[in-house]
Amino acid sequence: MINPNSNEAVTEGLRQAVAPLAFAEGPEIICETLRDGPFGIETQEHADSVTIPLRRRVEAADDVDAFIIACYSDPGLHVAREGTASPVFGIAECGVLTALTRADRFGVIAIKSRSIPRHIRYLRQMGLMDRLAGERPLEMSVAESASGEGTLDRMIAVGTELKERDGAGAIVMGCAGMARHRRPLEQALGIPVIDPTQAAVAMAIGTLVVR
Amino acid sequence: MINPNSNEAVTEGLRQAVAPLAFAEGPEIICETLRDGPFGIETQEHADSVTIPLRRRVEAADDVDAFIIACYSDPGLHVAREGTASPVFGIAECGVLTALTRADRFGVIAIKSRSIPRHIRYLRQMGLMDRLAGERPLEMSVAESASGEGTLDRMIAVGTELKERDGAGAIVMGCAGMARHRRPLEQALGIPVIDPTQAAVAMAIGTLVVR
Amino acid sequence: MINPNSNEAVTEGLRQAVAPLAFAEGPEIICETLRDGPFGIETQEHADSVTIPLRRRVEAADDVDAFIIACYSDPGLHVAREGTASPVFGIAECGVLTALTRADRFGVIAIKSRSIPRHIRYLRQMGLMDRLAGERPLEMSVAESASGEGTLDRMIAVGTELKERDGAGAIVMGCAGMARHRRPLEQALGIPVIDPTQAAVAMAIGTLVVR
Amino acid sequence: MINPNSNEAVTEGLRQAVAPLAFAEGPEIICETLRDGPFGIETQEHADSVTIPLRRRVEAADDVDAFIIACYSDPGLHVAREGTASPVFGIAECGVLTALTRADRFGVIAIKSRSIPRHIRYLRQMGLMDRLAGERPLEMSVAESASGEGTLDRMIAVGTELKERDGAGAIVMGCAGMARHRRPLEQALGIPVIDPTQAAVAMAIGTLVVR
Amino acid sequence: MINPNSNEAVTEGLRQAVAPLAFAEGPEIICETLRDGPFGIETQEHADSVTIPLRRRVEAADDVDAFIIACYSDPGLHVAREGTASPVFGIAECGVLTALTRADRFGVIAIKSRSIPRHIRYLRQMGLMDRLAGERPLEMSVAESASGEGTLDRMIAVGTELKERDGAGAIVMGCAGMARHRRPLEQALGIPVIDPTQAAVAMAIGTLVVR
Amino acid sequence: MINPNSNEAVTEGLRQAVAPLAFAEGPEIICETLRDGPFGIETQEHADSVTIPLRRRVEAADDVDAFIIACYSDPGLHVAREGTASPVFGIAECGVLTALTRADRFGVIAIKSRSIPRHIRYLRQMGLMDRLAGERPLEMSVAESASGEGTLDRMIAVGTELKERDGAGAIVMGCAGMARHRRPLEQALGIPVIDPTQAAVAMAIGTLVVR
User: Fold this and answer.
1) Where do the domains of chain F lie, and which CATH numbers do they carry?
2) Most buried among C9, C145, C172, E46, using CB within 10 Å?
3) Considering only alpha carbons, which residue of chain B is nearest residue D133?
């Protein structure tokens, strides 16, 4: 699992998020930071700046059975897939697909509103728009959302709008760094909440273990 | 994981298929046979006959954290979901969603051609038709496909048509009893092959472990 | 025309609703109650509980030229079709299709909000979502909506929202027991209102008479 | 029911096609010929040349409760609707919608291949493309198809391709003048065949009788 | 470029709107008024009344390399195309397609609300609904919108709603006579604004010059 | 107009292709080669390797009113748009949108089959799949297709399949270096052929001139 931004705190959060899925007999899960990445991925430029570094990282790995790109924009997903025979998963893709198993229509909590057109464009590319209830922003920085005290309250407020006004039956947390809010958010909203990093690891395990 | 048909051999095949995902620290995976089910689910009548028994089974379980309905028609999926606070997964849904992580468009190998309109209708219900390359039948009985010697050869022939003529980049095996053919089929075709029962168990583990 | 719930009052309402279509030279229209049905169909469990009884009823009929399932969830439609060479119509399907002849986008008045995801899923299965303006609930029980005095007022309020806020150019009454409200609702809203039971009988007559 | 071409033989065929639906207690069905129409409607120019004459005819009628435009291009449908408070039905629209009650995907038999892009454009306008199996031409003139001896044989050949190669589960005869071939075609193909003029009259009766 | 209404002031506005695209070495741009047209095209009847006159005009031209129909309903587009080997452009089609190059989802400013269902139907025919953010009306007459003083203010108000509430990233001015408001509207809204007549001339030049 | 590959011969071909659109009073058209680009863009890696260099080039330009990225994969389109207030056009987007003005459904001639899934994914992202007739490959290298003698013959063969078998009414040449084949291909096929570089320049002129 590669965190394409260079913020080690996010990578540490990933480790904790996916630790419950690191079974003794299962695949080893290694979370690493992309050295060349920006500190956070908030723009298209940030996203596009990591595609080739991710490709290089994937090509250089000779003992990795599956890769996960841990950024909700799934940067470099297709170029990474082209560069390896191993499966490559994107957390946005896996998060959304997992949400489809929990409700007829899902909502997405974005960090910032400027990411939403990029996410919508990606959902349309995946052919999944018919199942989207809506996407709404926290309007926080990635840093704030990961560490700030008011984050959960804001997520509950936004999640409630997605549920009540947009008709979402499940929520995808649209960021790699929100896993610790999953359970309290689920309890507050009363509908399933998907952490996309956990969703991606589970799908990767399914692919690896039964080889 | 409930096999909605009453064929114990199929249930035993499920046990073997998902055994690699039964981690010591992970959730226990119990495969059971629906006593009231028909011997195989080949028609709409078969599928509809098990919906209420599946609901009853789900309601009666007080120590189950997630359910998987192990039939590629996902019979009773919505009525089971209505009857429990635990997540309920259908193998068709999970198989197809997992295929979307491996290729732009996927193909489905059906047992019989008469199931295809039912599957297409269900794919349209899921809003996923834009990603379907095609579905083609083996034209075998479930029993034949599970045990017959020529099954793998026939699967390779049908899978090749899905790949070459329909443009499928990944294949979903459209039946609960085909898991042992997954690996040789994947090697013969050179594209990912998804066993839907394994896909469903992986997604269920992701949901359960991180609760 | 089979009322899949066991409420004889609903069946009697059906008889009155479709009586104008019972022409002397036309097909005889028989409205009957499904003995095994629940008192009302308000949940997925209710809907799934009648599918096999409907199949049995259809199979047992040897002098029926067409069947109509008179519940807005169209329960058992496909399993009934599988069991007979005669055409089988669902009132939801016929109601929606008839609405498409009257306006570019239609709205649906549901009895309860919890039915809406089920209806939306069914509309997506039919491939007709592009024409849906919206669906809004009365939030009444079937019994209330059929007999209560305030029903028409509530229907006018909900229908007005569908017209004004959602842009509906025609309204489908999403229940088998609302026929007597059709004309006054149409007059109040100023746009066509479709009773799905009448729509289904008309389409069935077209199929039968020209055989 | 207005035949927008000036071929009286076609109008006479309409009379015979819909005669079984002219119930004594039901609405009177009057089939008339549009005097200003071309002899057949085979081009976009033919279709557009009748829109305003159809509007005028509809406006001039003061004792007509519903109108049917009996040409498979539904020329003037929207301008006619704008000109009257009575419902206006198009046979293409009603034929296709009725086919949706009989099969998951339908096929259309066109007279000539040059009409097919026009029909496809219209199906896309109706939002119904997801249910189209395919459309194939007879490559006959309207006159030939209405009277020629080999018409039925050609229809069976084309219908068989729609069924076998395109996966059509029902067939719409894409012309106003094919009603007499409906039953033999249905028997030859073994799947439902829809005459769009009869479908439209049935839907109109449903609308009128229950006013 | 044919103005299908008989209002010479609109034609004069077209001349001014497209004058910057009349390059000395480029194709000559002739704006003319359709003599038989209504004074404005505000209804389906207006639109359908000009289709055959437009066809006649196109057929009569022997020295025209491309035609543009300058009305946002694109009346007669297909019948004109059928009547000439030269390309025929509609301003609505070109305006919307050009908007797709400037934003993920676009909004349309209509003159009157009653045109909106006609425009939506046309967008669905073009298969472009997935990119529509919304369409909202000025509720002015064509004459008012072309000349009235308050037009720009009203356009800014409506454009702001399309941007803020519907999420439009670009605006199409849904009328042939609004070109002079383009630049101030763009400045006020801060997102691209498309004049459909200019968009159509540019696309026509591309087609002609490189022949 | 930036050729994102470093093949100067392709850039020279662009100059010739768009020269007829370089009007004396119009915008100056400068075709330049991206120094950092690969020799040809045939893979996802090639495409992703130029996104950030394109962004840098766009940011560095202080006297450019509009940008065109001249590669049929539209690499870096969104990151370039994020980096400038000037409009940025992609030739694939403009080529396809222009094709929509010439036919109901279009076909694409690709250089190699391995590009087709990338193009399809992009078409789905644009929401334009409903208008695609098909895409078929020449199976040549970019170099061969630009210079080889047999290129036109192969294009005619592939274009004929798109027209006859897939129903394409217009053809988009899916490469930046095919402009000189446009006219003979159009004459051979009898349907419009779009050169995407010319289409993009025309749309850019429309945007610039009327500022």
Assistant:
1) 2-90+198-209 (3.40.50.12500), 93-196 (3.40.50.12500)
2) C172
3) B117
